[in-house]
Amino acid sequence: MNQPSPAIVAQGAVRRLPRLPLLLLCLAYVLPGFIGREPWKSADMTAFGHMAELLRTGTSNLSAWLHPTLLGQAADPDGPLPYWLGAWAMQVAPGWIAPDFAARLPFVLLLSLALFATWHGVYQLARSPGAQPVVFAFGGEARPADYARAVADGGLLALMGCLGLAQLSHETTPALVQLCCSALLFYAAAAMVQPGILPTLAAFVGLFGLTLSGSPSIALLLGTGAALWCRINQDHDGPAALQRSLGGATFALATLLAALLAWHLDLWHWRIALPHARWIEWRNLGRLFLWFTWPAWPLVCWTLWQWRRQLGQLLKHRHLAVPLVFAAVTVGATLTTPAYDRALLLALPALAALAAFALPTLGRSVSALIDWFTLLFFTGCAIVIWMVWIAMQTGVPRQPAANVARLAPGFQPVFSWTALLMALAATLAWIGLVKWRAGRHRAAIWKSVVLPASGATLCWLLLMTLWLPLLDFARSYAPLVQRVRDMVGQPACVEVHGLSTAQAAAFQFHGQLVLRSAERKAQCQWLIVDTNATQSLPRAVDLRQWRLQTTVRRPSDNNEDIRLYRRVTPSGR
Q1: Which of 191-195, 207-211, 477-481 has the lowest mean pLDDT?
Q2: E strands along 142-292, which residues?
Q3: What is the tens place of the pLDDT at every residue in 421-438?
Q4: pLDDT digits (tens, 9 = 90+) for 321-357
Q5: What rounded mean pLDDT belongs to the chain?
Q6: 442 falls in which pLDDT band (50, 70, 90)?
Q7: Which neighbouring-strand residues pair with 547?
Q8: Mean pLDDT, to the nearest integer, of 363-379?
Q9: Which of 149, 202, 335, 569 is the most buried (most CB within 10 A)?
Q10: Which residues, at least 6 apart from 550, have a Cβ–Cβ distance to it below 8 Å?
Q11: What is the CA radius of gyration of the chain?
Q12: How many CA atoms lie within 13 A of 44 on its CB side?
């Protein structure tokens, strides 16, 4: 027996969210963070270093392109696709475009595609029979297409409102490629019961993309789960059943081919690391889940409660089963990998979909609570960002200015009219949105997630405009590299020992230095050593040939000091 739907939605509650404001909101979220900044430590800089190394290697060395390395260190994760995208973009970009910005251009499209795929995936789920609202006795209930569009708008806004999405989705790392491919795979699983080539194409691209970006295990689990779901799904009968069976076969074939590709490229590696039975580790995981997935997780809990009667008949309720399968796999990966946050990133599209189905069931009191909390939280964050920026520019208030000087010694504030005008426009738009939300107008089920998505976008845009010089100084290796560069000049080569991949990439990009491993006896005049590797230095070089010149400190991090040595014997001896 089918349980009654908890969604009681009239046609007036699913009015269309204007497309132009939604598009502008997406642009305001996607573009800041890709434009005008330096590569940041450490994953962002590491990925860019591998891209630049592939560009220097050229297309003739197939082995280097299949298994990217930098100074002998392999990429981690070792899927080559993200590095291919950046290298190809730098290769075809005109000379007047900075290499690091050119490498980000494909990732702008990847983030946009992830948002697009999530919207369409939620739309397809909302069109399923089990997701439809209650039919009124005298008519007036929401029409299926309008209802699905409103729920999809809510799912997209819920995804953009997730706090953990902001930084990781704006880095040129494998994590963003994996996010995009998991969103495509989510859309394919949601839409596979519908005829058309797009779900099939999305399934192949998603599975192959996950495999080639370093997540073959997640690709295998998600592909297998989607194939099984298409096989046992019961929410369609008749002609749709044949399409469902074809969808299952498509997922099975794509998963098999992706597994064979991973085996052929030697991408299968044991990476499972179960969390230890220590309170501090589980506490940190709990905190990560709470802030990373906010505000989606309270809405997910509400969805599971309100739709609890349908959970016993998951085979007939695709709108619950598909996101639950995807969320279970990706959350499980979060618990079994050291890179907690980057694994949890893949769960956000599915969590946003589950959160969207809470919207048709929210009461006015719950919706008002979400609005007030969001209003206070993001308004407070925006005020703090503006206050610190004013303090950096004027020295008033004194305490924020002193905190900046203490945390980023040597930082010189930079004033930009462009950044100021963009920040002012975003702040005025936020004020206008709050005024609109507080006004008296017809209800719409997506209203409850407009403020979270807009508030997250506002704070991200303010950070990427007003605070961008400070963040570049604090999170970029450029200040450290420039200090070393001023001392060594432009030598033919510099030997290095103990540098991380990100540090090595920074010295190559910011300092234009030719690096050689100290273990290979390159006979360079300068030696750069990370202070954490000084104990192993005597085993790599003969210290009698070197004299310590100075220790260079990274202004915003005392844990990344660099020791600079100069050769005291002729290079030929």
Answers
A1: 191-195
A2: none
A3: 999 999 999 999 998 887
A4: 999 999 999 999 888 887 788 999 999 999 999 999 9
A5: 90
A6: low
A7: 566
A8: 90
A9: 202
A10: 487, 563, 564
A11: 26
A12: 22
> What's the number of CA atoms in the CB half-sphere (13 Å) around residue 540?
20
Q: For residue 274, what are its two tokens?
A: 């179960």
341 dihedral zone (left: phi>0; alpha: psi -120 to 50; beta): alpha
Residues 49 and 503: their CA atoms lie apart, in Å, by 9
Cα of 13 vs its chain's centroid, Å: 32
Taking only the tens place, the pLDDT of each residue in 105-145 is 999 999 999 999 999 999 999 999 889 998 887 778 889 99
What string of DSSP letters covers 363-376? -HHHHHHHHHHHHH
**Measured between alpha carbons, how far is 510 from 515 in angstroms, rounded to an integer?**
13
Give the span between the Cα atoms of 452 and 374, in whole angstroms: 6
Can you give the three-state secondary structure of 404-424, one letter per residue?
HHHHCCCCCCCCCHHHHHHHH
Distances (CA, A) of 503 to 419, 483, 495, 521, 560: 29, 14, 13, 20, 9
What's the per-residue H, E or C state across 430-470? Answer: HHHHHHHHHCCCCCCCCHHHHHHHHHHHHHHHHHCCCCHHH
What pLDDT is stored for residue 79 in this prediction? 87
Which of helix, strand or coil describes residue 276?
Answer: coil
Q: Alpha-carbon distance 448 to 444, whole Å?
A: 8
Task: Give bridge partners of residue 494 from the DSSP assignment.
Answer: 515, 526
Strands 494-497 and 515-517, sheet pairing? parallel
Are the C-beta atoms of 446 and 359 separated by less than 8 Å?
yes
> CA 38, CA 307: separation in Å to the nearest integer?
46
Query: DSSP letters of 72-103?
Result: TEEPSS--SHHHHHHHHHHHHS-TTS-HHHHH
Helix (H, G, I), strand (E, B), or coil: what is residue 505? helix
Task: Of 118, 263, 110, 139, give the one whose Cα is nearest residue 185.
Answer: 118
Instruction: Render pLDDT for 374-386 as a digit per residue (tens, 0 to 9).
Output: 999 999 999 999 9
DSSP category for residue 40:
B
Q: Where are the beta strands (DSSP E) in 468-573?
A: 494-497, 515-517, 526-530, 546-554, 557-567
